[in-house]
Amino acid sequence: MTALQMACGSCAMHRLCHPLTGAEGWLDAVQARRRLERGQKLFRAGAPQAAIFAVRAGTLKVSAPDGAGGHFIVRFLLPGDAAGLDGLAGGVHPTEAVALEDCQVCEIPRVRAEILAEGIPTVGAVLRSLIASQLAGSQVHSALLARHAAGERVARFLLDLSRRWDERGYSAASFRLPMLRSEIGEHLGLTMESVSRVLSDFQSRGWIRLTRGAIALLDLDQLRACAAIPLR
Amino acid sequence: MTALQMACGSCAMHRLCHPLTGAEGWLDAVQARRRLERGQKLFRAGAPQAAIFAVRAGTLKVSAPDGAGGHFIVRFLLPGDAAGLDGLAGGVHPTEAVALEDCQVCEIPRVRAEILAEGIPTVGAVLRSLIASQLAGSQVHSALLARHAAGERVARFLLDLSRRWDERGYSAASFRLPMLRSEIGEHLGLTMESVSRVLSDFQSRGWIRLTRGAIALLDLDQLRACAAIPLR
DNA sequence: CCCGTTGCATGATTTAAATCAAGTCCGCCG
DNA sequence: CGGCGGACTTGATTTAAATCATGCAACGGG
C-alpha cells in the first residue's frame, strides 16, 4: 500500500462506524476492508447495492455510463470519502466506482447500516447528512456545467481538490493528479484537449506548475478570482 | 386554488406522513399546509432549514443562486414532489424554491421528521430513499449538461415532464409549461433563444405542438430517439 | 536499449450555441 | 379600443470549445 492512508477519525463515515463514543462493540459496522488494484471496480452500475463504502486509502472515480460507451464522471473520491450512497433509493447502483490507483476501502453492508440506523438515531442522521451533502454537491456541479466557461470549470476543479486535501491535513498547494486529462474532461464536460489547453494557459500565467501526475498551485488567489467570475 | 391538486396517496412523502398504515396518530407529521402565490418563495437560499416540504398543488422551481445575480434551476417541482431535502446536510438551505403559480405545500418541521425517523424505522428509510433519489437524479442531470447537445437536452426535459405527469395520473402527451423559456434555459444550461429554436424545430417536424403556456407531445418515439442519441 | 504505446500538448479548422438585434404575438390596463 | 410591455420567435454574426491532425515525451516490455 503506497497510497496515503486515512485515519478513521477524519473519515466521512466515522460517526457511522463509531456511533457510540467509546463503545467498541460497533466497530464491526465495517464488515470488510477490500483492496483494489488500479482499474478494478468497487461496484458496477446496474448491480444490486449490497453495501456502502468508505475510502480508506487511494483514489477512485465514480462514473455514470451514458448507454453508448461513454461515461460522465460524477466525482472523484479521496481517502475518507463515502461511496455508493446513490444506490440507497432503488437498491441498485446507478453509478460505478473504479480505482485510479491501488486502494483500500471499508465496506458496510447495506443491511448492517440499516440495522444500525434503526438502533442508533445518530447513525440515521449521519447517513441522511452524507447523502444530502452529496446531493448539494451534485447540484453545485450541475450549476458549474450549466453556466461556466472552461477556465472556470478547471479552476474550480483544482480548488475543490485543494480544499479537500487541505481538510484531510495534506498540502492544499501541491498534490497528485491521479486521473487522466480525459477523465478531468469527462468530469467537467470538456474534451481532453480543452482541459490541456486551460492547464497550459494557467501554467503560462504562473498560476500552477504541472509535473508528471501532480500539480502545484502557485497562485490560489488568481485561481479563485478565475473560478469566481461568472459568465455574465 | 386553480392548480391541480395531488392526492396524498401518490405523494413522495406519503410513507413519511403516514408511516403506520391505518394509524391516524401520525397524520400530524404535517404541521401546516402553506399557500403560496405565484412568485412567492417557499424557502430562501442561505436560510436555516426549519422544515422539509411536499408539494400538494401547483408547481415550483428550485434554484441555486450563483453569487452574481444569476440562478441555475436545479429542478422543477410537480405536485407530490419533495423539497428542501438538500438542506439536511448542513441545516441551511443551499437552494431556494419559488412558486411558478399559486401553490399549496405541506410542511414537516425538521425536528418532527427527526423524531419520527427515530421512532419509526421506515420513516428514516423513506427519508434516505428520497434524498438518494434526488441525488441520483441530479447526477443524471449533470451528465446531461456535460455531454449532450441542445436538442437532446430539451427532448429529455420534455420526456421527463411527460413521465412525471404520467406517474401522477395525468396526460403524458399534453401538459402545461408553467415556466418561462428562460427558466427552461437556466435548467438546461442553454439560452432562452436556443430553447426557443429547439422547440420551434421540434414543432416544425411535427413532434410537438406549442400553445400558450402548454405543450402537446405528438411523437413520443421521435422525441425519445432524439433524446437517446449521445453526442458521440 | 530500443521501440511501441500511451498520455499529453498544441496548431488549424469547424461547428454549435451564444450573443446581438429586430420583429411578432398577446394579454392587460388605462 | 388602443397602446404598452413582457414573452417569445427568428435572423445575422460572433465566439468558445469541439474536432481533426500532428508531434513530443515518458514509460514499460521485449
What report would you give on this structure?
The structure is a homodimer of 232-residue chains. The model of chain A has no long low-confidence stretch (mean pLDDT 91). The first copy, chain A, has a four-stranded antiparallel beta sheet with strand order 1-8-3-6. In chain A, strands 2-7-4-5 form a four-stranded antiparallel beta sheet. A three-stranded antiparallel beta sheet of chain A has the order 9-11-10. Chain A has two domains: 138 residues, Jelly Rolls, CATH 2.60.120; 80 residues, Winged helix-like DNA-binding domain superfamily/Winged helix DNA-binding domain (Arc Repressor Mutant, subunit A), CATH 1.10.10. In chain A, 38% of the residues lie in helices and 22% in strands. The first copy, chain A, is of the alpha+beta class and 232 residues long. At the A-B interface, helix 2, helix 3 and helix 5 of A face helix 2, helix 3 and helix 5 of B. The first copy, chain A, binds a DNA duplex (30 and 30 nucleotides) through helix 6.
Main beta sheet strand tally, sense and closure of chain A:
4 strands, antiparallel
Would you identify the CATH H-level superfamily of the largest domain in chain A? Jelly Rolls
Instruction: Give the chain pair forming the largest contact, with residue counts.
Output: A-B, 47 and 48 residues
Find the CATH topology of the largest domain in chain A: Jelly Rolls
Q: Give the radius of gyration of chain A.
A: 18 Å
Strand elements of chain A, count: 11
CATH class (first level) name of the largest domain in chain A: Mainly Beta
Provide the number of structural domains of chain A: 2
Give the overall shape of chain A, derived from the CA principal axes.
globular
Mean pLDDT of chain A: 91
Low-confidence stretches of chain A: none
Strand order, main sheet of chain A: write it out.
1-8-3-6
Span from first to last CA of chain A? 47 Å
**Number of H/I helices of chain A:** 7
Approximate strand percentage of chain A: 15-25%
